[in-house]
Design brief:
The chain is an alpha/beta fold. Helices cover 56% and strands 7% of the residues. Helix 9 packs antiparallel against helix 13 and helix 19 packs across helix 20. The two termini are 45 Å apart. This is Solute carrier family 26 member 6, like 1. GO terms for molecular function: secondary active sulfate transmembrane transporter activity. It is a multi-pass membrane protein.
């Protein structure tokens, strides 16, 4: 009572807004208005005007926006210093990462040159450094060694096959494979960017990316051990290739017989001319190209957004996808392999004062000078040194193992994603590992939406707030009203669970209650029909008593002849028949208007009285009104249920059908259902899905839970609960 009085004071504060009244006040656009607006917007997008053309060109070529405003005095020197620093890092990293891709070192330098210049024109980030990266290099290496293994290039010595590999032919074909894969991956990125699929990178969560790069670092370490120890084991690719590598290292532990040190070798001076990739390879590398496209974009956009947030500018995710795709697609024609931003180089570019992508141009010039003039200086560089450079650059990735302890404290599910990604990438190789990791991460999302948290809400006294009554001590439940909320949107995967949770939280097992009620209603109808038939028989009996001849015996005066076996003989009246010449009819237990089988089955129902009972008492008993409360099986004091749908951002046809069934089922036990907090898009989807009808109108939708509560209390009364008196229905045994 006290809580009811506290809530009643809200009735005078403001108008209660249901969805219909809210639309009248706010004049919400209808679905047809929205459709018309979209049509007009589409028509406007097809119109070509000078301002629109200029805006499109500026969005496609961001360099045209910032380059005219470039201040040499403010940005020139910082960009130059930053570019030189990053360019110096490009040289060892480019050659070292080329070894990870199983390519000659000079192609790592090419990959540090052309893509950087392309990104200068199309990129929107001011601080990331485009070029070779550890993870992508390993992924490319798995493709090149799978399609161009050493065993396919063994030299022929007359009729015998030697163990010597034709390195020139092998490397030449590997370059073709890497270039074709890079071009295809770049085209995929461009297409995804043009169709505004820049959000695709969001499916790679941070724990997934960090675990993936950590496992890739382990692959990089194993790939570089042969250069560190100067051995030449046969490299395996595919699932479980890293375990194989450990066995080979153990087999080659006798290093005293191997003293030959491998060096970089000849670095040709000058730039190689562009060449068309071998398109016949596309079919064999489609999956690898897609994986390269997604991973490269995810790494680049995450770094770009980090620097953009720090320095207060915006990065266009779709344009970044196009810029990275063009960098790869164009670079592939110049024998480059897949590139993305590098964390180490990007940090150097930002911390040394870089302001724009002019720093990227400066770094590309350093690489260009090296290719043209300084290449011979690196020919005698041992590959072991490059391998050590790779090790040093992997230091940051190995530090990511500390994520395990952090995620253990913060999120067990993210920890499981991290571990599954790491194990699958380590054992299944990079391409299959990525696919397995993304699949598992998406399954965790489905699992969490399929099993959300369900709660019953109560009012915070003196406010319009409604919180979980199980988690807040001072929250008060609304008398007669149950407010039910799910922590996730309702859709096909959890609609059935939503209904089951509603039954549990409300304490009303609606399915059993409806079945029981309908069974009792059917029995009630049968009792009423039997009472009506008995009344008709009684009336006919009275008529017959007045018409039967007085000479008939006492039994005959009553119109009945009974035998011990229950057979009844009746002399009906027949108009026009001679007096006293009535025809006897033989019946088996009852009414001439019904079959004996059906009537006898009703007699055996257990709820009827015998023929010898008082007809007046039986009629009075049969006409008794049946309700769940009077049956004594269930009692409850809930008159309204409010479904809080504020967490729903969409609703599908399965959920619409489920909610309609909730309205219909609970109405059978005299419980009203209302919905509250629906977003405009959800209301529109309800309209399209034919949710509303004569029985379910927009008067059942409210702008907030508090509006719905006020309406319930005003409509049914704060203390107006269903009061059912338990009574026992007598049953004939």
């Amino acid at each position: 009572m006290e809580s009811s009085r506290r809530l009643c004071k809200y009735k005078v504060e403001r108008e209660v807004l249901d969805e219909q009244r809210l639309e009248e006040v706010t004049q919400r656009k209808t679905h047809s208005d929205t459709h018309r607006s979209l049509t007009e917007s589409f028509k406007d997008s097809l119109r070509c005007t000078v301002p629109k053309l200029k805006r499109s060109v500026m969005n496609s070529l961001p360099v045209l926006y910032w380059l005219p405003k470039y201040s040499i005095w403010d940005y020139g020197m910082p960009d130059l210093i930053s570019g030189i620093s990053v360019g110096i890092m490009h040289l060892p990293q480019g050659m070292a990462y080329a070894l990870l891709a199983s390519l000659p070192p000079v192609f790592g330098l090419y990959s540090s040159l052309y893509p950087t210049l392309i990104y200068f024109f199309f990129g929107t980030s001011r601080h990331i450094s485009i070029g070779t990266f550890t993870v992508l290099s390993i992924m490319v290496g798995s493709v090149t060694e799978r399609l161009a293994p050493d065993v396919a290039f063994l030299r022929m010595n007359g009729t015998n096959i030697t163990t010597e590999v034709d390195i020139i032919a092998r490397d030449s074909y590997r370059v073709q494979v890497a270039a074709a894969t890079t071009v295809l991956g770049g085209l995929i990125q461009v297409i995804l960017g043009l169709v505004k699929f820049g959000f695709v990178g969001t499916y790679l969560s941070e724990p997934l990316v960090r675990a993936y790069t950590t496992a890739a670092a382990a692959h990089a370490v194993v790939a570089q051990l042969k250069y560190i120890f100067g051995v030449s084991p046969t490299r395996f690719t595919g699932p479980l290739s890293l375990i194989v590598a450990g066995t080979l290292i153990s087999n080659y532990a006798y290093l005293n017989i191997n003293y030959t040190v491998s060096v970089v070798g000849e670095i040709p001076s000058g730039l190689s001319p562009p060449s068309v990739p071998d398109f016949s390879i596309f079919g064999e590398v489609m999956g690898d190209a897609f994986a390269l496209a997604i991973v490269g974009y995810a790494i680049s956009i995450s770094l770009g957004k980090t620097f953009a947030l720090k320095h207060g500018y915006k990065v266009d995710s779709n344009q970044e996808l196009v810029a990275l795709g063009l960098s790869n697609a164009v670079g592939g024609f110049f024998q480059c392999y897949s590139v993305c931003s590098s964390m180490s180089r990007s940090l150097i570019q930002e911390t040394t004062g870089g302001k724009t992508q002019m720093a990227g141009v400066a770094s590309a010039l350093i690489v260009l000078v090296t290719i043209l003039k300084l290449g011979p200086l690196f020919q005698e560089l041992p590959k072991a040194v490059l391998a050590v450079i790779v090790f040093v650059n992997l230091k940051g990735m190995f530090k990511q193992y500390s994520d395990i302890a952090t995620l253990w404290r913060r999120s067990k599910i993210d920890l499981v994603v991290w571990l599954v990604t790491w194990v699958s990438t380590l054992l299944l190789n990079l391409d299959l590992g990525l696919a397995a990791s993304i699949t598992f991460a998406l399954l965790t999302v489905i699992f969490r939406t399929q099993l959300p948290t369900y709660s019953v809400l109560g009012n915070v006294p003196g406010t319009e707030l409604y919180l979980d009554i199980e988690k807040h001590r001072e929250v008060r439940e609304i008398p007669g009203v149950t407010i039910f909320r799910s922590s996730a949107t309702v859709y096909f995967a959890n609609a059935e669970l939503y209904l089951e949770a509603l039954k549990e939280k409300s304490g009303l097992d609606i399915s059993k209650m409806i079945i029981y009620k309908r069974r009792q209603e059917a029995k009630q109808k049968r009792r009423e029909r039997r009472a009506e038939r008995r009344a008709k028989r009684q009336a006919r009996k009275e008529v017959m008593d007045t018409c039967i001849d007085g000479n008939v015996t006492d039994k005959e005066d009553q119109g009945w002849t009974e035998r011990e076996n229950g057979t009844v003989f009746v002399i009906p009246t027949s108009p026009g028949a001679p007096e006293g010449q009535g025809r006897w009819e033989y019946l088996k237990g009852g009414d001439p208007e019904c079959t004996s089988l059906g009537w006898m089955s009703e007699l055996q129902d257990g709820d009827t009285t015998t023929l010898g009972s008082s007809s007046e008492d039986t009629l009075s008993h049969d006409l008794e009104r049946i309700s769940l409360g009077s049956l004594g099986k269930w009692t409850w004091d809930i008159h309204s249920i409010i479904l809080d749908l504020s967490t729903a951002n969409f609703i599908d046809t399965v959920a619409i059908k489920t909610i309609k069934n909730i309205f219909q089922d609970f109405s059978e036990i005299d419980v009203d259902i209302y919905m509250a907090g629906c977003q405009a898009c959800v209301v529109e989807q309800l309209e399209i899905g034919d949710f509303f009808s004569e029985s379910i109108t927009k008067r059942h939708l409210f702008a907030s839970v508090h509006d719905a509560v006020l309406y319930c209390l005003d409509h049914r009364g704060a203390t107006s609960f269903p009061r059912y008196e338990s009574s026992v229905v007598s049953k004939i045994r």
